[in-house]
Structure formats: C-alpha cells, structure tokens
C-alpha cells in the first residue's frame, strides 16, 4: 500500500509450527506454564479452554464472575480478583473489551505482578492505547508482547486463531507455547511490542473484515427491498471473482437466524471500527467505509442487537 505507514521493517514473518519430532514432543510435554487469562468473553473463554487442554495451569478472571465460572469444569482456576489470578504466573494474557479496560485490570493486578513476567496483550486496543499499555509494562518490569488475534468464536474454540505478535526475540520461547495452544499460526511483526506493529496490522485486517461484513448485510437488505431472492444473487456470482466464502458464512447467519451466540458481537465490532477510523484520521487518511460501518453497528446496537453477531448491522438498514 503506497500510502501506508512504514516503520523501516521488512514485511511480517510467518512462523508455522515445525513438524513434530520425538525431541520436540518431549520438550512440549514438559514445557508447561502457569497462564493467567484476564477476560473470559467470547475469545478469552475459548483461549483459556485451549490453554488448559494443552496442559498448562490456567487461572481466569472476569469482571462478571459468572462468565468465568464455567471454565472451572475445563480445569481452570477461577480467581476472585486480577491480583489473585496473576500471582506467580509465567504469562499474563489480557483479552478485554478495549485498551482502557485492559489498563484498569492490570492496575488492579499490579501488586501481584512479578518483574520479568511475560504479558501477552491480545485486546484489540488500537495504536495509542497499545503505547500506554507498553508504558505500564515498562514501569512494572514486564516483558510486553503486542499480540492481537485474528478470528472469531469458531476458530477460537478450535484453537485455530492467527496470532499477530510483536515483542523481544529473546523472550519468545516463554510465550510461543501460549500462541501454539490458542492459534494455528503466529505472524511476528517486530521485536518491540511498544511500537504496535501487530496492532497496526490487526486494524488493517479488521478494516477489511468490517467492510465485507457491512456489504454482506446491505446486499441482503437491498435484495429484500427490491423483492429479489438472495439465492438469485448467490447463483449469479457463484464461483466467480465476486464470490467469497465469508459472504456465505455471514449471510447464512442472518438467513438462518443464527445471530446468537455471536461469532463476534456488534458492540465489539463497533469499537474496532472506531479505532480504525481514528487510526486513519491520526495518519491523514479518511476512511469513509469504516466510519459508515461504525455508524451502522452503533444503530444496530441501539436497536437491541448489540450482543448478536456483527452481521446484525443489517438491521440498521431499516427504521
């Protein structure tokens, strides 16, 4: 992208899991960590379950305690406070609503944080907030990894997320088992988490996801308004360059009335859309589609669809 921001680094490096060897398998069986997961919403709960299945000791905390309690059946220890959750942990993983929420929770955990602990920050926090979180990490001697994830409920539950990560190379051995448990692939974008290179890539990726989701909802709304059977449209574009699996996945949720439980909720998508718009504004780019997507998502939330899948922005087409 010619107008994109450059940080002087080469493009993202893709790190795939190596083929298993007896030596690697032995190492993995003994390399178990104590991981604290702060935030057990759609993504955090799935990530915590996969960490427990991988054999790690998992402690979880959520502001609404009842959302964390079911994880006890999966082997996780449910903590009553962030400080209780992080005490003695090898890795702290935060996946909360936004940057301010992540900072508030880490401040509440501060008394129990051990210098040298790895902090995997997976909240989609945006560029400015990532810098603030990295500053907190420096203040408390934490090893900071900017590590948002790509994926929704289904890949999260299957441990098939894509982890976008930036942080010091010398500490990656401590966090790679976490990434391997929750994701199918890790994409390293840099060695300084404070630079926010992983978060910047996440915003670019999410801008495409939101644009595609908005278009999926609008094409169904227009088809309804014009009395066109959506299946006619799908047949028209089938197997051509305009066809895409994501379109069928999202419109299927609407047509089959499967908006709950959400793969990715309207209110969270609206937050991400605003982060994208702001990132563009601060860097001299006007993002009209992202701004319109944010407005549609917020209207749908106001209509009562906030906890439904983000394609429920469809309803914003109707008064």
Task: Set down the secondary structure blueprint.
Layout: E1 13-15, H1 22-30, E2 34-38, H2 42-53, E3 57-61, H3 65-68, E4 77-78, H4 82-86, E5 91-94, H5 99-109, E6 118-121, H6 127-139, E7 143-146, E8 149-150, H7 153-157, E9 161-166, H8 172-182, E10 183-190, H9 197-225, H10 230-237, H11 245-255, H12 266-282, H13 288-305
Parallel strand pairs: 2-3, 2-5, 3-4, 5-6, 6-7, 9-10
Antiparallel strand pairs: 1-10, 8-9
Helix pairs in contact: 5-6, 9-11, 9-12, 9-13, 12-13
N-to-C SSE string, H for helix and E for strand: EHEHEHEHEHEHEEHEHEHHHHH
Rounded average pLDDT = 92
Shape: globular
The number of helices is 13
Q: Please state roughly what percent of the residues sit in beta strands, choosing from under 5%, 5-15%, 15-25%, 25-35%, 35-45% or over 45%.
A: 5-15%
Derived from helix and strand composition plus strand pairing, the structural class reads: alpha/beta
Low-confidence stretches: 1-30
Distance between the termini: 38 Å
Major β-sheet strand ordering = 4-3-2-5-6-7
Rg of Cα set? 20 Å
Specify the biggest β-sheet: 6 strands, parallel
The percent of residues in helical segments reads 40-55%
Strands, total number: 10
Structure description:
The protein is 48% helix and 13% strand. It is α/β, with parallel strands linked by helices and 319 residues long. The strands form 2 sheets. The protein has a 6-stranded parallel β-sheet, sandwiched between helices. Strand 2, helix 2 and strand 3 form a beta-alpha-beta unit. The N terminus is likely disordered.
């Amino acid at each position: 992208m010619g107008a994109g921001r450059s940080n002087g680094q080469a493009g993202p490096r893709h790190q795939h899991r190596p083929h298993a060897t007896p030596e690697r398998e032995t190492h993995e069986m003994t390399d178990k960590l104590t991981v604290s997961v702060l935030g057990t919403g759609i993504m955090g709960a799935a990530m915590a379950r996969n960490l427990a299945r991988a054999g790690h000791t998992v402690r979880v905390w959520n502001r609404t305690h009842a959302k964390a309690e079911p994880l006890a059946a999966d082997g996780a220890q449910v903590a009553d406070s962030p400080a209780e959750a992080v005490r003695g942990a090898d890795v702290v993983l935060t996946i909360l609503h936004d940057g301010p929420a992540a900072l508030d929770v880490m401040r509440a955990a501060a008394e129990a944080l051990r210098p040298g602990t790895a902090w995997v920050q997976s909240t989609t926090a945006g560029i400015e907030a990532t810098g603030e979180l990295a500053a907190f990490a420096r203040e408390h001697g934490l090893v900071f990894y900017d590590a948002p994830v790509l994926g929704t409920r289904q890949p999260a539950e299957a441990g098939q997320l894509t982890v976008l990560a930036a942080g010091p190379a010398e500490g990656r051995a401590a966090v790679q088992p976490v990434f391997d448990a929750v994701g199918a692939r890790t994409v390293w974008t840099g060695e300084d988490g404070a630079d926010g290179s992983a978060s910047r890539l996440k915003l670019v990726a999410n801008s495409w996801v939101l644009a595609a989701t908005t278009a999926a909802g609008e094409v169904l709304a227009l088809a309804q308004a014009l009395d066109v059977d959506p299946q006619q449209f799908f047949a028209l574009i089938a197997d051509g360059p305009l066809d895409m699996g994501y379109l069928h996945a999202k419109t299927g949720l609407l047509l089959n009335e499967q908006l709950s439980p959400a793969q990715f909720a309207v209110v969270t998508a609206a937050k991400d859309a605003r982060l994208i718009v702001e990132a563009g504004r601060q860097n001299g780019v006007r993002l009209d589609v992202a701004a319109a997507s944010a407005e549609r998502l917020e209207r749908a939330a106001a209509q009562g669809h906030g906890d439904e899948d983000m394609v429920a922005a469809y309803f914003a087409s109707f008064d």
